[in-house]
Amino acid sequence: MERLVVISNRTADLGGKTLSGGLAVGIVDALKSSGGMWMGWNGEVVEKSRSTEAQVDHYENVSSLTMALTKEEHQNYYLGFANKVLWPTFHYRLDLMDYRTEFARSYARVNGKFADIVHPHLKNDDLIWVHDYHLIPLASELRAKGSDHKIGFFLHIPFPPSDIFSAIPRHQWLRECLLQFDLIGFQTQNDADNFCRYLKGNSDVRFVAPEKIRWRDRTIRIGHFPIGIDADEFAAMARETDEEIQLERKRRTLLKRFQVISADRLDYSKGLPQRMKAFRKFLDSSPEYRGHAEYMQVASPSREDVTAYADIRSELEQLSGAVNGKYADINWAPIQYINQSIPRERLALLFRCSLIGLITPLRDGMNLVAKEYIAAQDDEDPGILILSRFAGAAEELGDALIVNPYDVNEVARAIKRAATMPMDERKARHRSLFKTISTNNAELWQRQYIAALRAVERSVPRTPPSSHGKWSKKSGFGPISDSRQ
User: Does the pLDDT at position 471 exceed 60?
Assistant: First the structure.
């Protein structure tokens, strides 16, 4: 059986006792089943590093290959091109895109650095699985070194409509880089359709099937593979006893109160201010719930040195203060805003004792928090998930209350509906949702993707678009850096 090589911007702690999140669990299970290697950035930022400097660690039949980034690379590749160009654009926020040539050059160079480090460690029959928007040019860099491996790419965030993606300067270069992969995977059918529509209007590829293309001398498959969680494992965490949380749950029961909960990274794509505004609208329009409904917003810090994130943190602080100032009394505060990370085990307990899970991103690739909220619920007294129609999870979780996150009135009505929903309906919805997340779990996701990657044709070696050389005026895409640093 071929060895699996996973390459992502960051790696999991393979030596840790527990793994956090469906992505880490799914990948590590896949690596252990056939033996393999996980390569990525170790999280360290240094003054200088040699291009091929890396650390190798071994854990039974799995190894990790990690490297540091320099300050310039972290600033321009990670915070710059990845998170000031690709992240906002892929989340439909062209107004927040900050394109700079030095960002693009660093992005190409760091992908070359990844290739330089991993290439000597590759075996002839390895399957290579590249993850996410940080590493779009990686297959191109590996092909330039003569790699004919089967290389798959999986995008964990949304892929935008053609008009939005084509607004990225030199989007043609990104397209040519993507076409160096043998399998291009997305979270949802909508994302895959967006990419196909972009190709039809902006390339010379030939579709030989709805999600299979011929490009030059290669066949490339496009597909959607919705990521899942280990629902049973998360449900078990939610059943653990925490005295503090249990006491708080009993207090709310005695006072006839219920909790609405949201938990996300502090990010403009998550729609956190809109959620607070919707809860405020709920209190405005349903005064009978004042003193009885409590909203907990957990917003873990994220990329705090990016201006847009500082702005949203300030907005949330102002909104929560304004709502509490208007409605709170000495025994009750409507909003509890937590701007820090909470351990996953504790979140599971908080989800279980919350009547409503409010998960309403403005745009999201999947949103595993929605699935975790479902998994955490008590079968005999389940809570209700309110889910954005723009979360990838909405394609699977139709028995949630699906809402438009931009319409605070609609979300407020959904909160009222959830608060008054009969127990029979709550149980029926939960049974259906839990069955879905238990079936479409992390294991199924990685098995289906790897099976699809194994099934593709082996690549024909060719010279791909490289990050070396001069800008191509004729093609409009192509090289964006003159040398590696």
Answer: no
To the nearest 10°, report the CA torsion of 435, 441, 445, 448.
-60
pLDDT digits (tens, 9 = 90+) for 128-153: 999 999 999 999 999 999 999 999 99
Instruction: Indicate the range of 103-112, 203-212, 237-246, 323-332 predicted with least confidence.
Output: 237-246
Q: Would you tell me how many other CB atoms lie within 10 Å of the CB of residue 476?
A: 11
Measured between alpha carbons, how far is residue 298 from residues 23, 131, 322, 326, 333 in Å?
Answer: 21, 27, 18, 21, 15
Contact 277, 262 (CB under 8 A): no
Domain 231-439 has CATH 3.40.50.2000: yes
> Which pLDDT band holds residue 277 (cuts at 50, 70, 90)?
very high
Query: What are the residues facing 39 on neighbouring strands?
Result: 7, 65
Return the closest-CA partner of residue 464 out of 475, 478, 450: 478
The fold adopted by the segment(s) 4-227+442-455 is Rossmann fold (3.40.50)
- Name residues whose C-beta falls within 8 Å of residue 481's C-beta, 6 or more positions apart in sequence: 104, 105, 108, 109, 467, 468
The answer to whether 78 and 9 have CB atoms below 8 angstroms apart is yes
Quick one: pLDDT band at residue 32, thresholds 50, 70, 90? confident
CA distances (Å), origin 53, targets 69, 261, 333, 424, 467: 10, 44, 52, 59, 20
The one catalytic residue in 74, 156, 171, 430 is 156
Per DSSP, the three-state class of 369 is helix
Angle at 167 between CA 165 and CA 169, to 5 degrees: 105
What is the domain partition of the chain in residue ranges? 4-227+442-455, 231-439
Q: Distance between CA atoms of 155 and 174, rounded to whole angstroms? A: 13
Give me the catalytic one of 126, 132, 191, 364.
364
What single DSSP character describes residue 392?
Answer: G
Identify whether 156 is a catalytic site residue: yes
Count Cβ atoms within 10 A of the Cβ of residue 223 and give its class: 0-12 exposed, 13-18 middle, 19 or more buried: middle
Work out the pLDDT band at 245, boundaries 50, 70, 90: confident
Contact partners, residue 287, CB within 8 Å, separation at least 6: none
